[in-house]
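Ticket #4471: structure export looks truncated?
Reporter: QA, pipeline team
Priority: medium

Steps to reproduce: submit the single chain below to the structure queue and open the exported record.
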Amino acid sequence: MKPMKYFLTAGLLCCMSVSFAADSDTNKDMTKMLKSRLGGAVPVSDPVKTPVDGVYETKYGSKIAYLTGNGRYILIGDMIDLQTQENLTEISRRSVSKEVIDKVAVNDLAVYPSAIDETKAVLNVFTDTSCPYCKKLHEEVPDLQKAGIEVRYFPFPRGGARGPGYQTLQQVWCGADKAQTMDIAKDVATGKLPASDCNNAKFVDTAYNIGNQLGVSGTPALFTAEGQKIEGYVPSAKLIPMLLN
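Actual output as written to the record:
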């Protein structure tokens, strides 16, 4: 028996009644049944061959799945190379997150640039002004800046338009200087927030949808420039070496 090199921690195995031949690495017929099950609501990428014979990777939305060569079976879980200890699914997942985040114009975000000449890292944060741990992280943003880390905020009102921070985030994004209004909203500066009826207020809904696409379920949700997701609040003393190493 050959030693096991790849391990798939599968969360679901679905059987479909029709199979398709896979003549190439990107045969679109392989995802036909998956697309029919999703009903066209979520985009499905062409399948790509994995290191495992007969198993192909596809993406639907921001999720990763694996199809057998005929497209009949789908495996949902993480594929791990036991020889190298690499989580191949996580590598793909980060690539998806990076692609989604990089499409957002930096000018649309509340940005806190590096406090030194060199920007050593970028941290993207989905935040809510009504979230206590978001405020705690915000108090430590100057520490991140001094370490050469640029912080970019995406508004993510928990609960969407009905969430307690929704209108306040709209007010923040209506400010001429979003970093300044964010400071006011998070109680590290004094001042008055503008009205929430400006055109920029629409970005709160846009960013909320982006967060949902990336699987954000709570705040703060942190993403590195490479797309790695860091769940929840992390103290700056621990976060800085994570970002710079």
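Status: closed, not a bug. The export was complete when the record was re-opened. Leaving a note from the reviewer for reference: The two ends are 40 Å apart (CA to CA).
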